[in-house]
Amino acid sequence: MSRIEAVLKTLKGQGRKALIPYITAGDPHPDVTVELMHTLVEAGADIIELGVPFSDPMADGPVIQLACERALKHGTSLRQVLGMVKTFRETDARTPVVLMGYLNPMEAMGYEAFADAAVDSGVDGILTVDLPPEEADDVAPLFTQRKLDAIFLLAPTTTDDRIRAISEHSSGYVYYVSFKGVTGAARINVDEVASKVAHIHEMTALPVGVGFGIRDAETAAAVGRVSDGVIVGSVLVDTIARNQADTAELKRALTDLLHPMREALDSLAS
Amino acid sequence: MSVKLTEEMLSALPDARGHFGAFGGRFVSETLMDSLMTLEKEYLQLKQDPEFQAKFDKDLADYVGRPSPLYFAERLTRETGGAQIWLKREDLNHTGAHKVNNTIGQALLAAFLGKKRIIAETGAGQHGVATATVCARLGLECHVFMGAEDVQRQSLNVFRMKLLGAEVHAVQSGTRTLKDAMNDAMRDWVTNVDDTFYIIGTVAGPHPYPMLVRDFQSVIGREIRSQAMDKVGKLPDALVACVGGGSNAIGMFHPFLADENVELYGVEAGGLGIASGQHAAPLCAGRPGVLHGNRTYLMEDENGQIAGTHSVSAGLDYPGVGPEHAWLKDIGRANYVSVTDEEALDGFRKLTRVEGIMPALETAHAVAYGVKLAAEMDKDQMLVINISGRGDKDIHTIANLDGIEI
């Protein structure tokens, strides 16, 4: 059983929901990313999604675009991101780490070399925004052979046939994009999410994490009630942007954001 | 090494997943997949629909003014002293470039799909103008995304788009050029996917765009075939076109791919020279990667981050290229070369002074290389340069370079 699977299974056994924060590696500076990952765990993260910065993040709104630009200004490369995970693993063997990003940096590194290095660094899952399963024939097997979870996206526009096919290609969890749009837009409609996630649950046994539009305890609880976990990204990245200069203050601000979400999610526990 | 292509092989490309050999495909986030698959299905049906094709042909004839002439550049030929140089006059199309062939076709598609809101990206502004034009004609809401730097250097086209009723969004992210405009157009599309049709301006992007843009632009090559037979009694020996994303080049080349005696030359923007690194020539100096929904040759750094590009012409200032060109390069069917900013400017001046035809700066790259190539060919040979657009939009850029204030 993968580390992701184990964590989600334990949570389910406790009737609890996963809190999955996202930050962009290298933002605001490569030197503080590992520290921030530990902060996220202390504030209640069950899984960390670590963004690999890309020059052209087409699926992201301005908040994460700017995070990519900040990270790339410091030359944050995919290899460096893998190094950060490796350092993180020296003191945290428990929290799963999912790399989230775009395909081209992996292609440039070479898929096999990347998959090997990911395992070696202690990465648990890979989520590639611009890689639908149709194009993943050469790539996804390299992950699954190495017991890396391949996490794919489902969207409000995904048809039933595709929900089934994508779920079959996925392991760990599936990531449901809560609305049509880019990251950071505030358009979430909880009723729509609830009915779609219930529908997805009928078609796959995999846990369903929901991301896009979750920004506070209230939205976290509302979405947590109808899913297996919530992914929180832009609101954290925006907090990083506003507290770049002072790492101690930044860690406090991230904790202040995540902690109420954790509590709100745990208050749902049956 | 060149491969002999047959009509049968060509009709099988792209394959069902939009691949041209190792290139092309559909690399987008999940939200867009359904729209792309619907578009593909509808397009493949309409392609066989005589009513749709008749409508397209009628618009090209009566609204665009096709066929565009194939003109023998007698004086340029004499001065060059080699092959006969012929010019395919896409600059005489309504709106002044080949771009409108494609926007007419895609707007028809949008109408068949019942979409009322149109978005487009643009570099030099020619595709933006061509999109705004068809939207004005059909009464569709039009949003054009344009890099903030391009908004500066192509202010004339920005004003044209506004006059036509389009909203121009100046894109401030990244390098503030064409690639960033395309990023923002994709972001808009993913947000408004239900009611919006994205008219992509070139043969790049996710499948089915490279295929359908190629099909709409192939009217260029089909006309050249019949015009060459009428006027000269044979097919041309060489075809030359500039390549940014590569739509005018594919449109010209595609009907000739199976004619192995017709040499194909795609001319990329060499900028300050390939060795300087300041260029926009992914086929000449890039490597395969994935950007904007397809696998193709890209300009990128060793970590897979997309590199900044440079060209005097905004329309060629793009780090990628259509996947079919990537495939044609790899199988050796087409030659891809580059000319520098300076050579292109010389080409602009030459065609203007010798033939009285002012080409766009993008087109001037093809002119510069075409003249160079013709000089090395025999007098009984025939070379066609695709005059993909007219140069009015670039007058300010040329004047600035000459230190003249207009």
From TrEMBL, chain A:
EC numbers on record: 4.2.1.20
Pathway info: Amino-acid biosynthesis; L-tryptophan biosynthesis; L-tryptophan from chorismate: step 5/5
Annotated InterPro entries: Aldolase_TIM, RibuloseP-bd_barrel, Trp_synthase_alpha_AS, Trp_synthase_suA
Name of a matching Pfam family: Trp_syntA
The UniProt record lists the keyword Transcription: no
Signal peptide feature range: none
Superkingdom, taxonomy of origin: Bacteria
Active-site feature positions: 49, 60
Subunit description: Tetramer of two alpha and two beta chains.
Biological role: The alpha subunit is responsible for the aldol cleavage of indoleglycerol phosphate to indole and glyceraldehyde 3-phosphate.
PANTHER family found in the cross-reference section: TRYPTOPHAN SYNTHASE ALPHA CHAIN, CHLOROPLASTIC, TRYPTOPHAN SYNTHASE, ALPHA CHAIN
Family assignment from sequence similarity: Belongs to the TrpA family.
Protein name: Tryptophan synthase alpha chain
Organism of this sequence: Marinobacter koreensis
